[in-house]
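User: Show me a protein chain along with its predicted structure.
Assistant: Here is one chain, sequence first, then structure tokens.
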Amino acid sequence: MAVKVSAVFAPVIAGLFGLAPAAALAQSAQIPSEIMGRLDVLGRFAGDAPSCAVLGYGLRDPRAFDEEVSRYGDRVGVSARDAMAAVAAAKTTEDRAMREKMDAAMAHLDEQSADRALNDAVEELATKCRRAVDDPVGSTLMTPPLGSIPTVVRRYVDSLLEPKGRAGWQTPFILGGGELARTVGACETRLARAQVHSALAPLHQPYLFAPDVQELVDPYFAKRQAAGREKPLGLGAAQCLRLIAKKTMEMQKAGN
């Protein structure tokens, strides 16, 4: 089942950024267009912030942002009420648009043909998030995660596609290793501890994976082994060992 960003983060979004109601924008016609442009940008930063949280951005106390908006209004001769109302209107529009785009992208996680659209949507969001934290006012909204935009995008997209076996690091060999780990887990109650250790040894050879991949495959193999434990195969020890040998050969073949 696809996960909706709006469902997960609705409480955060509802309580974030205590800006003035958009209805107060009635006086916005009095604000010069270049100033309205800046307020619109700030509002879009605020609208993107809740979605940025899924990429690892840390949300700050929204009062600091509110204060910066008020200060900007003071500097350019716009009342705090009008400035915050303009920001609130842009925030609402951007928040809705970004959540709808992300929900649409994640509605088809089961379909490999939709992976490109998912990556594009996440990249667009990540770019907007980075622009916000690079802005002197937008930076009061949130703190960035480690890594460049491509790194942040890849990390999040892979986290969504890993359960589907389509993360960028999930090579045929690694997927075969996951199947081997699952089979060992499903047979654990029929095997001695030494046999389990021996069966998993091909997954833990030194220098088998690059360090950045190793930190991903270790928990992946552990999760697949745990999944096997939850669904034991009900085979005898000899049958289990034959099946494990078969899965080992399939994994090694996939790596060639």
